[in-house]
Write a structure and sequence with these properties.
CATH class of the largest domain: Alpha Beta
Distance between the termini: 7 Å
Number of domains: 2
Largest sheet: 6 strands, parallel
InterPro entries: Beta-PGM-like, HAD-like_sf, HAD-SF_hydro_IA, HAD_2, HAD_sf, PGP-like_dom2
Order of helices and strands: EHHHHHEHEHEHEHEH
Radius of gyration: 17 Å
CATH architecture of the largest domain: 3-Layer(aba) Sandwich
Pfam family, one: HAD_2
Oligomer: single chain
CATH superfamily of the largest domain: HAD superfamily/HAD-like
Protein name: Probable HAD superfamily hydrolase
Helix content: 40-55%
GO molecular function: metal ion binding; phosphatase activity
Organism: Cephalotrichum gorgonifer
Shape: globular
Length: about 240
């Protein structure tokens, strides 16, 4: 197997604890859409996480339109996507925190200079940059090496589509076989796996009662190793490199 030269980090709940903040903002907007469209269903941030974790807001709106008969014009959809981005960024700038233990591992990787580091997210690039800036991770990632399925591609998409991983590898000049993706969600893990990239699963932010379930979900989606804490990263990386 070719050696790993490049580590591609998901952002939300892998680098930055932003998922709950984001879904709370999403719920407000989606409930507003449901009310305007006469749809009785209402969501909380928590219920959205259970249904849509790993998808971006555009992907969620697509699923909601299909599932509940919601009809949005292209202009309305773009207006809501922009409004969601603004709302989430405001929450992240106020309350964003790094995932537990990730800063120490990023510092070690930066000092080692052995791997190329990049961010590959479903979220809009503006939001990803705001997240990593808020927690002081922007020093580890060049701006042009932050990739977004929502804004870096000619046609916006969302994980589990592998397009953003394939795009990132191409821009970085890497073969997918030399990349490792780190993902906390089924859709993200599926995206990396479909792109032909080895995936390291991460269950850190999930509540204790869901960790065993999510470990299996990530393995079923293609993760070759799953870690629960960033302190396990060096051992997990060594395992993957020994494959």
């Amino acid at each position: 197997m070719p050696k790993i030269t490049t580590i591609l980090f998901d952002c939300d709940n892998t680098l930055v604890l932003s998922e709950e903040l984001a879904f709370a903002a999403c719920a407000d907007l989606i409930n507003e859409i449901c009310e305007k469209q006469g749809v009785e269903k209402r969501f909380t941030g928590e219920s959205l996480i259970l249904e849509f974790v790993g998808q971006n807001f555009r992907g969620m709106l697509g699923s909601l339109q299909a599932r509940y008969g919601i009809k949005l014009t292209p202009e309305e959809l773009e207006d809501y996507v922009k409004a969601e981005e603004d709302a989430v960024i405001a929450k992240i700038r106020a309350h964003g925190q790094p995932c537990v233990g990730v800063m120490e591992q990023l510092e070690k990787l930066a000092a080692e200079k052995k791997y190329h580091l990049a961010v590959v997210s479903s979220s809009a690039k503006r939001r990803v940059v705001a997240s990593i800036e808020k927690v002081g991770q922007d020093k580890f990632f060049k701006n042009e090496e932050v990739f977004s399925a929502a804004t870096s591609l000619p046609v916006p998409t969302s994980k589990p589509d592998p397009a953003i991983y394939l795009h990132a590898a191409k821009v970085l000049g890497k073969d997918v076989s030399e990349c490792l993706a780190i993902e906390d969600s089924k859709s993200g893990t599926t995206s990396g796996h479909r792109a032909g990239i080895l995936v390291l699963g991460y269950t850190g932010p999930y509540p204790p009662e869901r960790k065993a379930e999510m470990t299996q979900v990530l393995k079923d989606a293609g993760a070759v190793v799953v870690m629960d804490d960033w302190s396990e990263f060096p051992e997990a990386l060594a395992k993957i490199e020994a494959l």
